[in-house]
Amino acid sequence: MNLSATLLLAFGMSMDAFAASIGKGATLHKPKFSEALRTGLIFGVIETLTPLIGWGLGMLASQFVLEWNHWIAFILLVFLGGRMIVEGVRGDDDMADTPHRHGFWLLVTTAIATSLDAMAVGVGLAFLQVNIITTALAIGCATLVMSTLGMMIGRFIGPLLGKRAEILGGIVLIGIGSQILWSHFAP
């Protein structure tokens, strides 16, 4: 793969994380840049590792990974999105109790769910002549940038939407999961 193809792949793989980060940023009370960068780093590191894992699995058992990755991503994203919707509906519109930071494991789970497509790409890359380390690093760096940017965009959307931002973020995660499932079955 040439440089432009690698960059297009990298930014394409980061779009799910970007959308999820906008939702995450919107649910926080004015997240600082350090929180956005923390989220970007978590998403970026996981998005770097998943194509490497996929590449390794592609060398071992590609058929199993390709058959189940869309279901795993769908279930995780629907679960996380549903949880966000329930929290948004349950809470009132008082921004005083809005968290200033997401829990580490919540971010890791969301990052894993949004990066399973990168794992599937890694499986495919196992059959091509590519430098998997360079490609995985490009995907991770693009995700770091896009997730940090998404959190900062969410910072401005959140105060406009209040608790509805959490509901919207949950809908976005469910939509991403549904799109992953749909793209697997679409002709």
Provide an overview of this structure:
The longest helix has 58 residues, at 33-90. This protein has 6 helices and no strands. It is globular. Helix 1 packs parallel to helix 5 (132-161), helix 2 (15-27) packs antiparallel against helix 6 (164-185) and helix 3 (33-90) packs across helix 5. The mean pLDDT is 80. The chain has 187 residues and is mainly alpha-helical. The two termini are 26 Å apart. It has helices spanning 3-13, 15-27, 33-90, 104-125, 132-161, 164-185.
Descriptive labels:
6 helices, 187 residues
Q: What is the helix tally? A: 6
Relative strand content: under 5%
Question: Would you report the number of β strands?
Answer: 0
Unreliable segments of 5+ consecutive residues: none
Instruction: Note the overall shape.
Output: globular
Query: How does the helix and strand content classify structurally?
Result: mainly alpha
Distance linking N and C termini: 26 Å
Q: How does the major sheet shape up? A: none
The mean pLDDT is 80
Helix content: over 70%
Which sequence of SSEs, written as H and E, runs from N to C? HHHHHH
Structural Rg:
16 Å
Q: What order do the helices and strands come in, and which of them pair?
A:
Blueprint lengths: L2 H11 L1 H13 L5 H58 L13 H22 L6 H30 L2 H22 L2
Helix pairs in contact: 1-5, 2-5, 2-6, 3-4, 3-5, 3-6
Summarize the structure.
By secondary structure, this protein is mostly helical.
